[in-house]
Structures are given as C-alpha cells and as structure tokens.
Design a protein that fits this description.
mainly alpha
Length: about 110
C-alpha cells in the first residue's frame, strides 16, 4: 500500500505542478489566481477522500499558487515547480524504501 500511495503522490504532484505552472504562466492577473486558489481549495478535501492522487494534484497546485502570491513570477525565476517535483519524488522514494524494508522485516518475524 505504501508503494501505491507513493506512486499516486508523485503522479498527483507532477500533474498539479504542470496544471498550476500552466495557469500561472498564462494568467498573471491576481483575480484569476485567487479564483484558482478557491477552486483548488474546493477540490482538495473531495480529492483526498475520493482518490489520493487527485488530492495531491490540488495540494501541489495550491502550494504553487500561494508561492506565486508570496513571490510573483516565482515559477519562472526560482524554478519552484521543478524543486517541488524533486522534493516530492525524493520523499516518495524514501517512503517506498521504508515500505519495502518494513514489509520484509514483518514477513520474517511471522
């Protein structure tokens, strides 16, 4: 289950980063970005309760929208989208390794 959730987290994060980077690069108007924050905030709980990867799409997009408000044009200038994907990928790989390690040790003790 841990491996499956890690895969879903990476997939959702990549999709969310691509979606939010697209909106941020084409729509610089703060009103549109505020609307996107409301939309992703609405879909976040629904996504997490229905499907984990959809929830991660909303989480990744919401984080990048908030970072864009804090530092305008941060997506292009600081490559935050790229580092968000790298960060989540490293965390998911560590999670997969831990899941494999724990599943091996639990089967040996049984």
């Amino acid at each position: 289950m841990g491996i499956y959730k890690s895969f879903q987290r990476i997939l959702g994060t990549v999709a969310g980063v691509i979606l939010s980077a697209f909106f941020i690069s084409f729509f610089q108007d703060p009103k549109i970005l505020i609307f996107m924050v409301f939309c992703t905030s609405f879909f976040l709980p629904m996504g997490l309760s229905k499907n984990y990867w959809i929830g991660n799409v909303a989480i990744a997009a919401l984080i990048l929208f908030f970072l864009e408000f804090a530092s305008p044009q941060s997506i292009e200038g600081h490559h935050l989208a790229y580092w968000r994907i790298v960060d989540i990928s490293i965390g998911s790989i560590v999670g997969v390794i831990a899941a494999l390690f724990l599943s091996d040790s639990s089967t040996q003790n049984a």
